[in-house]
Write a structure and sequence with these properties.
It is built from 7 helices and 26 strands. Helix 5 links the parallel strand 12 and strand 13. It is an alpha/beta fold and 421 residues long. It is 19% helix and 33% strand. The chain folds into 3 domains: 189 residues, FAD/NAD(P)-binding domain (3-Layer(bba) Sandwich); 133 residues, FAD/NAD(P)-binding domain, CATH 3.50.50; 96 residues, no CATH class. Helix 1 runs parallel beside helix 2 and helix 4 packs parallel to helix 5. The strands form 7 sheets. Strands 1, 2, 5, 6, 7, 8 and 19 form a 7-stranded mixed beta sheet that branches. A 5-stranded parallel beta sheet has the order 10-17-11-12-13.
């Protein structure tokens, strides 16, 4: 069985950035396994711009952003296999995959980086009543059909869910001549970035109905109409608020789920809020030598954050393989999210062996106005930052510096919370 120093599962933006970083850190025996027929992941179908403002200080489309990382990986001669579907990963870091050229193959790794990305929540998880006619797509499927396969998916469109993909597809379909009648959102707030609401809905006069959901689907062979209704505080439809729309297409943009079937198989401890693995400040999971980054860890809003996070995972995986990790005794501190903060990534920090600073990313549970993000070391507030608006669709972050722990030798817990400004 061939053994690699580092095997990276996933050749999207996270996998590519991790591979480049690991190679720069001194590990050359790397293998990327990608199940698609090309590198780049989901970026290949994201032909809109808005990528790369943080990483490259310019605005790129998804394929352009991916192309820069692909070119770098190829220039560095990092090996990869396409059409390679990983079937299983054992706790001993034995990876089983298959492809057309080799059939069924087993390899092993000193370190594994999980970079499988995420998938869309399917219709079956949404409990929408009605038949199962043609014309109902997840927003990402419609995006692939239009942007890669070259198909038109419909002309009269209703969209359920205001995640970023749904918002972007509202604009995309409008530009292709479709009539997007409404975007309905179950929650009282949008799940997408503010800029996407403005550029994709407001600029095209597409209505967004918050606290609404689909309560009926008409049509047997092909969808002919959709009925939406307002929901109450318990997200139950309110009788008498129904609105009917004639349409031939329904797009579903109802959330993303990190792709973690392989992660669970390894025996990694999972986080019930993020649906990704729990990790420390090195982005290492509870299984030694297994690292995670990108949307498999938690769903990001910007690919630039995916790339920077993945670069950190690649560097730390390389340090693990080269045994350059600090040997000083560990001082693990748990991060706690409360009062409007839904989760933190990472979930623990080793303050004895951490870098000079660690970026902690998180999302809030609701829309908050004029609040502060506060950080507590134990019961002592050490940091507070005012924010005019906090929204679930926008990821937040705080920077924790190693020097700041000098006066807290016995710290066991860090709390991040929102407070009245």
């Amino acid at each position: 069985m061939k053994q690699y120093d580092i095997v990276i599962i996933g050749g999207g933006p996270a996998g590519l950035a991790a591979a480049i970083s690991a190679k720069n850190a001194g590990v050359s025996d790397i293998m990327i396994l990608e199940r698609d027929e090309s590198l780049g992941g989901i970026l290949n179908q994201c032909i809109h711009n808005g990528f790369g403002l943080h990483t490259f200080k310019e605005e790129l489309t998804g394929p352009e952003y991916a192309a820069r990382f692909i070119a770098k990986a190829q220039e560095m001669e990092i090996p990869y296999k396409l059409g390679a579907m990983v079937l299983s990963v054992s706790p001993e870091k034995v990876i089983t995959y298959m492809n057309k050229q080799e059939g069924l193959v087993q390899i092993s790794a000193k370190a594994i980086i999980l970079a499988m990305g995420c998938r869309e929540r399917p219709r079956g998880a949404l409990n929408i009543p009605g038949f199962r006619p043609a014309g109902i797509y997840s927003a990402g499927t419609a995006q692939r059909l239009m942007n890669i396969e070259g198909y038109s998916v419909g002309k009269e469109v209703v969209i359920l869910g205001s995640g970023d993909i749904g918002l972007i597809m509202a604009r995309r379909m409008t530009l292709e001549g479709a009539n997007v009648k409404v975007v309905a959102e179950l929650m009282p707030y949008s799940g997408g970035l503010k800029r996407n609401i403005v550029q994709c809905l407001n600029d095209f006069n597409i209505p967004l109905k918050l606290s609404h959901t689909v309560v009926g689907i008409d049509g047997e062979k092909r969808i002919t109409g959709v009925t939406i209704a307002e929901v109450d505080a318990n997200r139950q439809p309110i009788p008498g608020t129904e609105i009917h729309y004639d349409c031939d297409t329904l797009l579903l943009s109802c959330g993303l789920i990190p792709e973690n079937e392989l992660t669970r198989e390894i025996g990694v401890e999972m986080n019930r809020v993020t649906s990704g693995p729990n990790v420390d400040d090195k982005l290492q999971t509870g299984v030694e030598g297994v690292f995670a980054c990108g949307n498999v860890l938690h769903v990001h809003d910007l690919v630039d954050h995916v790339s920077s996070e993945a670069a950190l995972a690649g560097e730390n995986a390389a340090a693990y393989v080269l045994a350059k990790a600090e040997t000083e005794s560990a001082h693990k501190v748990t991060l706690k999210a409360e009062n409007g903060v839904r989760y933190t990534v990472p979930q623990t920090i080793d303050v004895a062996n951490m870098r000079d600073s660690v970026t902690v990313r998180f999302r809030v549970a609701d829309i908050y106005h004029n609040r502060s993000i506060a950080v507590y070391y134990g019961d002592k507030k050490v940091m507070s930052r005012k924010k005019r608006v906090l929204a679930p669709g926008e990821m937040e972050q705080v920077l924790l510096k190693k020097d700041s722990f000098k006066d807290y030798p016995d710290i066991t817990e860090i709390t991040i919370r929102t407070e009245e400004a």
